[in-house]
Write a structure and sequence with these properties.
By secondary structure, this protein is an all-alpha fold. Helices cover 75% and strands 0% of the residues. The protein contains 19 helices and no strands. The longest helix is centred in the middle third of the chain and has 60 residues. Its main location: membrane. Keywords: Cell membrane, Membrane, Transmembrane, Transmembrane helix. Belongs to the peptide transporter carbon starvation (CstA) (TC 2.A.114) family. It is found in: Cell membrane.
């Protein structure tokens, strides 16, 4: 219990200390017009209040990741707490802040465009394909997981196919309509339910004196699955997630002022880390150690854990509200997954989005492909999602590192987590069955070599960016926009 409480306190302190340092180091320009004003189109570029932007950002990034991931990561034991706290403060929140701010400085650009600008044109095409794959997998995962939870909640009285269809209808509307018409109106309600359900579970854990294990570096996984690299691909959204790099640019297009960036981007990642801590602690404490948790996961995946934890801690009535709060998380990330994909494709092919029929042209094929993917096994999708997710996060961290180097600022804050995660993603794809299936020890060493090669390419690109004509770090706003 002490470890759990201390971890929550550290996350909060991280926002007021390291988060404040990151914000001051980057240097917000409060007088500089943001894309919400300079590029306003009343569809994707719409100025909104900080509280509303913060709630939308939290709900965008907090899909099933900070709940399902920590629940499955709980199998490793309290070492999961360390990754959530350290990863969230020094990697995930830095990642989200830099992605959001660099996007604001570059007309609300999404990650593929930023990767092309800072890491080279080849990376733009690679990241564009990779990001769209991630968003498609995310949107699909975030259709099936809430559909299963709803199906269980109503005891199967509504067919699973009907629930999936209704979720798709909502996704289509939220993808093509202006952001302030549906997302901007329903998210405050959804946000309240999310916060209440998470705080309710956390409060009951403390009130009942739940047997949350104390900190240890020992790997408790029943099957002795290696902590490195698997833990970093199991707990993603609660510590570091590339999916956030696809969501922050959505809010960069609705942010009123650069001074709002720390609460919106850094702060909401800390909030997600707290949610992850609560569910990891609940999973560890309520299922008879890690073996018991494994049995529950084997029966119904993480969704069953959510239902059982909510009912055990909050009772049938309030537990149902808690489950609804969890259902909202993936739905409010799935809708913006497709919205983000639409915006990225539209930017890539230079197709304006003011007219609704143009939005349908881009979004239609995405929903067809996603519906086909709903027939694929959830756990298989999740494995590919996890690797694609962390690869995207790593690219975003390197974009942030390049920006800070060019700006003559402290690039170490992003380069350390970027290097660490580069080594991890190479280790994962080399050693795991979805990749090359090599010996783990061999994969560790090969990953070091590949990481060094990547750093060499990165430094080559830095030299290229700093030679010749001056590199345009930030988009130069036309003089009339400054009037």
């Amino acid at each position: 219990m002490i470890t759990f409480i201390v971890s929550i306190v550290l996350l909060i302190l991280g926002y007021f200390t390291y988060g404040k340092y990151i914000d001051k180091m980057f240097g917000p320009k409060n007088q500089r017009p943001t894309p919400a004003h300079d590029q306003r189109d009343n569809v994707d570029f719409v100025p909104m209040k900080t509280t509303k932007n913060s709630l939308i950002q939290l709900l965008n990034i907090a899909g099933v990741g900070p709940i399902f991931g920590p629940i499955m990561g709980a199998l490793y034991g309290p070492v999961a707490f360390i990754w959530i706290v350290v990863g969230c403060i020094f990697a995930g929140a830095v990642h989200d802040y830099l992605t959001g701010m660099i996007s604001i400085r570059n007309r609300g650009a999404h990650l593929p465009e930023l990767a092309g600008k800072f890491l080279g044109k080849l990376m733009k095409h690679f990241v564009n394909i990779f990001t769209l794959l991630l968003l498609l997998l995310t949107g699909t995962v975030f259709v099936t997981s809430p559909a299963l939870l709803l199906h269980n909640l109503v005891d199967g009285k509504i067919a699973l196919g009907v629930i999936i269809f209704l979720i798709f209808v909502y996704y289509i509307l939220s993808t093509v309509l202006p952001i302030d018409k549906i997302i901007g109106k329903v998210y405050p309600i959804f946000g309240a339910l999310l916060v209440i359900s998470a705080l309710g579970v956390g409060f009951r854990l403390i009130q009942t004196g739940a047997p949350i294990p104390e900190i240890t570096l020992e790997n408790m996984h029943p099957k002795n699955a290696p902590v490195i690299p698997l833990l970093f691909f199991t707990i993603t959204c609660g510590a570091l997630s590339g999916f956030h790099a696809t969501q922050s640019p959505i809010i960069s297009r609705t942010t009123n002022n650069e001074k709002n960036a720390r609460p919106i981007f850094y702060g909401m990642m800390i909030a997600e880390g707290i949610i992850a801590m609560i569910w990891a602690a609940a999973a560890m404490s309520l299922f008879g150690s890690y073996g018991g948790l494994q049995e529950v996961l084997a029966k119904g995946e993480a969704a069953l854990v959510v239902s059982k934890v909510s009912t055990l801690l909050l009772g049938s009535v309030f537990g149902t509200f808690a489950v609804l709060g969890v259902i909202i998380l993936p739905i409010t990330s799935g809708d913006t997954s497709f919205r983000s994909a639409r915006m990225i494709i539209a930017d890539y092919i230079n197709l304006g989005q003011r007219k609704i029929w143009k939005r349908f042209i881009v979004a239609g094929p995405l929903f067809i492909m996603s519906f086909i993917l709903t027939q694929v096994d959830f756990m298989l999708l999740w494995r590919y999602f996890s690797w694609a997710n962390q690869t995207t996060a790593t690219v975003a961290l390197w974009v942030g590192t390049m920006y800070l180097m060019l700006a003559k600022k402290n690039f170490i804050v992003s380069m350390i987590p970027a290097t660490f995660m580069t080594w991890n993603i190479f280790t994962y794809i080399l050693s795991q069955p979805i990749g090359f299936g090599l010996d783990l020890t061999m994969s560790y060493y090969l990953a070091v070599v590949l990481t060094l090669l990547w750093i060499a390419f990165f430094m080559y690109q830095y030299k290229k960016n700093t030679s010749g004509k001056a590199f345009e770090l930030d988009y130069q706003i036309p003089h009339q926009s400054l009037a």
